[in-house]
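Q: what does this look like with alpha-D-galactopyranose bound?
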Amino acid sequence: MITFDRENEVFYLNTDRTTYAMGVWNGEKLFHRYWGKRLVNRLGKTDLNDCVWRPHVADLGDNSSDVLPFEYSTYGNADMRFPSAEFTFADGSRVSNLTYKGYEITDGKPALDGLPSTYCEVGDKVQTLTVHLEDALQNVEVVLSYSVFEQLDAITRNVKIINNGERLLLDSAMSATVDFYGSPERELLHLDGSWARERHITRQPITPGNQSVNSRYGCSSSFHNPFIALCDKNADEKHGNVYAFNLVYSGNFTAGVERNPYNGVRAYIGINPTNFQFVLEKGDSFQTPEAVLVYSANGLGEMSRIYHKLYRTRLCRGKYRDSERFVLVNNWEATYFDFNEDKIVEIAERASKVGIDTMVLDDGWFSSRISDDNGLGDWYENRDRLPNGLEGLAKRINALGMRFGLWFEPEMVNPGTELFKNHPDWIIHTKGRKPSLNRHQYTLDYSRDDVCDYIIDTLSGILSRANIEYVKWDMNRCMSEPGSAFWDGAHQGEVMHRYILGLYRVLETITSRFPNVLFESCAGGGARFDAGMLYYMPQTWTSDDSDAVERLKIQYGTSMAYPFSSMGAHVSAVPNHQVGRITSFDMRCNVAMMGQFGFELDLNKCTDAELETAEQAIKTYRKLGEVFHKGDCHRLRSPFESDICAIEFVSEDKNTVILTVNCSKPMPSAPDEYILLEGLDETAVYTVEGTDRRFGGDYLMNVGWHYVNNADSKTEMTVFKKV
Ligand code: GLA
């Protein structure tokens, strides 16, 4: 799986289907040699003429460096492209030059200190290569780590920078950069959007110059996601080369491509260099987040299935990684801030009758929180609303045979609270500048240990007092005037990253202290839907937009990198609160059921027919949830390309297949469509559950499933069972 060809000095990182190779040139430089389909034959000794984009390069002294494929490049050596790392040294110089020093290959995969990452378990075929590079003049060591998940077809990378010299400033450090040889026909795919419109798919040609997606919001954000894929121009769900990068990080990031005049493309992903500067004293080190690299020779579908399986099984952790999760009802859209204990119990009573197992109390249960402009930070019950406290309410919910869940927004504080009055300097702010309010709130300064410890204690107190079995962890503003009263002037450039490290420490402590609680992350909907959060919490509230038609796009786009098992998805009332659209109850159930199924309405207001549909849907979900969440997902029709969205889920043994087809709007005199299924056993016969219809697996994959988009809110969920 990882080998070093000593004679030619080439490293091979092989998964079942992929090879990633790099070579040492002249005992001195580490060049990227190859990434793609698994190679059968070996590469020769690294020769500049083999890996350069311009022929006859004499040496590294002229500006040929600008075209060489460096495995990890630094600024200042005639390589003018976006650097992998930048330093300012004690002598004021900014030039650095890395040379190869040595390597180790070990079994398994070490955890990253203080940061989330994928992991391996006993029996997994996982190995790690560490390559040591050094700037000899400044005495800085750069350790590149690569872990190879052989069976899962993924390669992860991270970088550790160790300063053995004088105090230096680390100005940027990417988690991964990859130099692609001339590839002008490729396109860049990324996920962007906004609040209530998260992770729509954007695809654009890779033109000369730099193109990137970024977050400077303090979280990964709803605007862009730390995921990019370089695809062949005609790559689709089933065909073409795709090279994807995803960052296991929840803060400011950059991810992009730079195409130079010789059609070489450097792809990069890492912490956003804006407002980032880490002081490294002699002996200090800096650890970058992990980047997960996936190559697929068979289009975007295979790329996503690789990410899904890796994240489901080797990123998410804890009790709920593998076990069935909850079907919940959340009161947010049912009541907003207008509720009391009896009202919540009333919603729960009706919900329990249709089979919902968890009642989640959302925002507004604490201190002065009767609207969104006060209360955050004062985490004690509002006794007017909850006379018996959380304990009393949880008991009443439990008496209905349901679990009780609770909303928190622990990274925030409103200015009117006791917490803010007692600790005005506990917020993210810059001395002398007026801190901006956003949704009437400030961000607590999680770069400080005292703030993190206070939150850990406060939340632990609440979670131990009442029987709370689910937590929705929200975060509802971007960070502005970034700075901290705790850190001195020299360390202000560390605050945004230290915030994320603080958050991860809080999450690690709370989730391991309460292993039986199911945690769901949220950030004004899906503004922090990233692999970093999934390490601590196995599901994320995908979007505040629960309109079934909008969700088709949001969930489809999210599934590029993240599994359906990680997407919180609820049935809400119509007209929809975000877009005013009316869709059928059936469609809302079928769309939500693909994710972690739940409800966001007062079922007391539903008709008998709707209640019947909800009850049936929950039964179906309990039967089929395993296939939605552990099966292979195939995207058959894109809602970005037509009014039809078709997604198929195939159980690992190929015995059960679920085809979901939903249309966003009907077409008069609609043509007959044949949706070609994928991943079935072609020699087997499948029956359509609930009918006596039978189809060959080969028929369904080659002739297809007949569909006509002729009715509003048309929704189909068809289950095929192997005979
Ligand atoms: C955010 C969340 C919502 C809800 C509100 C409560 O917007 O995304 O689901 O919890 O906060 O204020």
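The chain has 13 helices and 38 strands. The radius of gyration is 26 Å.
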